[in-house]
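Work Package 3 (structural annotation) set out to generate three-dimensional models for the target panel prioritized at the project kickoff. During this period the team completed the workflow that converts sequence records into discrete structure tokens, so that structures can be stored uniformly alongside our sequence database. As a representative example, we reproduce one entry of 271 residues exactly as it appears in the project archive.
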Amino acid sequence: MNTEKEIKRVTTKALSLLKKKGIKISALTAYDFITAKLLDEAGIDLILVGDSLSNVFQGNETTLPVTMDEMIYHTKAVTKAADRAMVVVDMPFMSYQLGIDDGFRNAGRIMKETSAGGVKLEGGQRVAETIRKITEAGIPVMGHVGLTPQSIHQFGSYRERGRDKEEADEILTDAKVIEEAGAFAIVLEKIPAALAKRVTESVSVPTIGIGAGFYCDGQILVTPDMLGLNLEFHPRFVRHYLKLANEINTAVKKYIKDVRSKNFPNESESY
């Protein structure tokens, strides 16, 4: 039985089934129709409309500036392209931190306006009741613990989290608490592989790792990072499957040369 081929549309139930069968979940980010379509046609399980669009799409240093309206705008484009993959949306900074009701209302707005399959919140115990209220309304919520980029000014750096016992135990507790609150999956970001293994074995929902080692139930990368569109950004956990920055540079230079030499357009490319 090929479980992957049997799944016509990825849902929270399908992700749970993949974990139970030991089939690793694949996830990538997308912020536009064309990228989402290519990822979906290739068979990706989950597409995250990440607030990382603040960095890779808008050119900001952190994820903090991106707004609700911008997340909704990009998600509308992505959901039009995704026929199989589940689309999950990052709730941006300050869309849920002000209180449970704000988080509930903004999650509802995202679902109503985008046709997404769920939302993602960063944090553990402090957002548990927000997760509970959102999930009780029938909105799937993905959790996110470890390094949480929306808290970067509190952390002071993007260093690995959970290196000492106290912080590791807190991350494990956070994961258990948000699972109990109703999260259907949990992103584990930039924590030791041994800790990610403990978390993955301690919760019944899928764990999706980014810089968290092999033992997670799935993996996610930022698509422009994975494709090598920014070769200067190469942390340990990013594998460059292509080096598109170099290929694009070469193609653009060839285009410029052809235009200036009057080689483009030629007769067959003209009306």
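The CA atoms of residues 90 and 120 lie 5 Å apart.
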